[in-house]
Amino acid sequence: MGGLKILLTGANGFIGRNLLTHLLPNYAVLGLQRASPEHPYCLQVDYNDPTRLEAIFRSFQPDVVIHLASNTSRTRAMHELPTFIDANLHLTNQLLLAGITLPQPPKFIFLSSAEVYGPQTGCLDESTQTNPVSPYGISKGYAEQLLELYHRNYGIAVHVLRVFNAYGNGQDPGFFFADLMRAYRESKVFEMTGGEQKRDFIYIQDLMRAIEMFIHRPNLFECVNISSGIPISLAHVVEVFSEKVKGQLEVSKTLPYRANEIWEISGNNSKLNELGFNLLFSLEEGIEAMLGHEKV
């Protein structure tokens, strides 16, 4: 472990665990998480304790903060908005406040979400007006504005990464790929809609490489879609998956579509590509990688 010092929040989440493993060979990484850590390079922390956070910042002196910690529930129950504001906006402010106590405040890489775009269709670029409709999307949008404010007022370098649909092994239940893999592993029927909805998927290892690229970007404020730019129907995902497991998957397309279903959404990734980034994993290759340790 060596090189630039990276402070990673949400180190025990799906993206955090993968990113910690990805970065450790070339960087000095300290992970923060709410739960008791199992990894030697992680600390348990109460993000609502500013004294503790400031002490960690002073002791570790990070060059970069990669901020992943958040409440990622996709509920649209607005009575839960205060919970999201606390987890996604207030927490971000606490980290920024700790950062500006240092003589040289660290760069912030913030994982936002395509949810800030809301129920818009088509291929969305970074200039598309945000229109979040969920507490999660609203809180992420506010956090983006807060980060831009700190950039203007304190000169902190900020890279806002609007991540579309990341997938890979180890994802929490409730996500499409995680539930698909679980149904296959447990020989259960995979229940879904007709699958006509099209989404933009990016494999976890491509996401890791994209995040790492921004560690070395110039110190500025920027917002970039992290996406494949390719809308793929859920039905096609299941078709490819079934082919890879030689038909060992039973599918039932009986679930109803959601009211006001978004039929097609993807992220224009021209800006990401202009920075020199190229995807290494197609959908087929991502699924093959997920199944790499499975007995097919």
Structure description:
The chain has 296 residues and is α/β, with parallel strands linked by helices. The chain has two domains: 5-166 and 201-226, Rossmann fold (3-Layer(aba) Sandwich); 171-199 and 230-264 and 282-293, UDP-galactose 4-epimerase, domain 1. It is 36% helix and 20% strand. The chain contains nine helices and 14 strands. The chain has helices at 14-23, 50-60, 81-99, 135-154, 176-185, 204-215, 234-244, 270-274, 283-290; strands at 5-9, 28-33, 42-44, 64-67, 107-113, 122-124, 158-163, 165-167, 190-191, 198-203, 221-226, 231-233, 251-252, 265-267. The strands form four sheets. Strands 3-2-1-4-5-7-11 form a seven-stranded parallel beta sheet, with helices on both faces. Helix 1 (14-23) packs across helix 6 (204-215). The longest helix is centred in the middle third of the chain and has 20 residues, at 135-154. It is globular, with a radius of gyration of 19 Å. It starts with a strand and ends in a 6-residue tail after the last helix.
Give the SSE map.
Blueprint: E1 5-9, H1 14-23, E2 28-33, E3 42-44, H2 50-60, E4 64-67, H3 81-99, E5 107-113, E6 122-124, H4 135-154, E7 158-163, E8 165-167, H5 176-185, E9 190-191, E10 198-203, H6 204-215, E11 221-226, E12 231-233, H7 234-244, E13 251-252, E14 265-267, H8 270-274, H9 283-290
Parallel strand pairs: 1-2, 1-4, 2-3, 4-5, 5-7, 6-14, 7-11, 8-10, 9-13
Antiparallel strand pairs: 10-12
Helix pairs in contact: 1-6, 2-3, 3-4, 7-9
Question: Could you give a quick summary of the protein structure above?
Answer:
The protein has 296 residues and is of the alpha/beta class. Helix content is 36%, strand content 20%.
